Amino acid sequence: MTFEIIALLCLIAFIAGFVDSIVGGGGLIQTPLTLTILPQIPVATVVGSLKIPAFFGTSVALTQYIKKVKIHWKLFTLMASLAFFSAYIGSYFLTIVNNDFMKPLLLVILIGMGIFTLLKKDFGMATAKTINKKKLLIYAVLISIIVGLYDGFIGPGTGTFFMICFVTFLKMDFLSANTHAKLVNLATNFGSICLFLIKGKVIWAIAIPMAISNGLGGYLGSKFAIKKGNTIVRKFLIFVIFLSILRFAYDIYQTF
């Protein structure tokens, strides 16, 4: 691995960490670009290696957000536990099954999410609301399992999916949803990391320098988001959804 390639991967990781810390979706930048730069390395090994910088960057960003946002620790400990095991199972499936069949469905979902976010100007901008405890628990369990499986099986955009689910179903504002999304996303990343470590799918020469760069991007991005508030998070969300649509549309095109 040459110095030039490592430097380029670190730049990608920094940008991904910055974007991910604001609205999630760093994997939409980090994963496809790294796969392009390292075509000789098996996909599962690249994905496994990228889970390390993703985990580190999210951790750094979270340390900034929890200083400003109140965490519902009991609920999100449950969600993190469920998401961990779901991601582990999803990553196991990734090692034995191709995930291309999911991409057309995700493309349709993302287009719908993009239109909804653009048209609903107050989405995630209002003050967080409380909902019925039973309904809250049901939504929390379903979100953890479904998005956790997605993260292990496909991956890119997990933080964004968590965030949108928290705003839509748990009635949080953007900053609160982003903070809690990172908390649960840490668990899904850790679940995947455990599986990839067991399978020997991590290249530390790539993972460590990218983790440092991703962490720096996460630190600066979280500071920026906290300073600018919900408005800037909404703009980044629209950007990441658009990026997601392009990514999955391209993947589908490549299969034909």
> What about the largest sheet?
none
What low-confidence regions span 5 or more consecutive residues with pLDDT below 50? Answer: none
Tally of discrete structural domains: 1
Q: How confident is the prediction overall: mean pLDDT?
A: 85
Class from secondary-structure proportions: mainly alpha
SS element count, helices? 10
What's the SSE pattern? HHHHHHHHHH
Portion in helices: over 70%
- Into which percentage range does the β-strand content fall? under 5%
Determine the N-to-C terminus distance.
Answer: 32 Å
Q: Could you tell me the number of beta strands?
A: 0
Rg, Cα atoms, Å: 17 Å
Shape: globular
Family: Belongs to the 4-toluene sulfonate uptake permease (TSUP) (TC 2.A.102) family.
Main location: membrane
Keywords: Cell membrane, Membrane, Transmembrane, Transmembrane helix, Transport
Protein name: Probable membrane transporter protein
